[in-house]
Amino acid sequence: MALPANLSSALAESSLEQGEKVFKRCAACHAPSDQNKTGPGLAGIVGKTAGKAAGYNYSPGLASSTLVWDEQTLDSFLQNPRKLIPGTKMTLSVPKPDDRQSVILYLKSLTEGQ
Questions:
Q1: CATH class entry, domain 5-111
Q2: Which uninterrupted H or E stretch holds 10?
Q3: Residue 64 and residue 107: Cα distance in Å, rounded?
């Protein structure tokens, strides 16, 4: 049974707000823009090839990767970055599946309109 549109929209908004909260942990290293910090800026990341943002010095594993950041690869990376990309500089993981899905929704919102 499908959810009514207004309920589905409310759930998505709630999840987006949760994603923004979860992203605050990420913001120590990543900006929600194209500005690089300790980690690369994440605006527009969904749909892009991993390790290719201009001006950021990626680990060799990520720089040579052919991964495309979609919901599945982001979920795997956020769950265990070093399992997906051995040698990555990223150490923070997002262990809770709901938090990962929310932050992925937030990252997708940073891609819209780009």
A1: mainly alpha
A2: helix 5-26
A3: 23
